Please model this.
Amino acid sequence: MSETVTTRSRKAGVTLAVNRVLVSAHAVAIIGQPVFAGGYLGGDYDMLWLHRWGADAVSFLAYAQVLAALVLLLVRGPRWLLWASLAIAAGETAQYFAGVDGALDLHIPLGVALVVGMVLTTIAVWRPQTWRAGR
Model:
């Protein structure tokens, strides 16, 4: 019985570490997006390519984060991270298509909200008391 609890605890610890790395990488990637957009708006037209590439990276990280949060939930992790990850991934999908369509009236404010959401999620995922509280 003790071995099962230890194995489950180890799995939860590894899964938590993976989630923390993905959330942190996602935050760094999404914070880079306004930097690339600002460079483009400042006249460096090559930055638009970086902004587009960054959007693909942010989207990939969002979907990976959803999967990792689901795995964490399955090993008795908190529900909030899955719901936050799903909301951010949905917002980023809308953000991506608004950018492709040139709908800057939606793209820019949604981008600001998503950056704030990812920063808050990153802070929360690193707080130890979040995980002690359980679900």
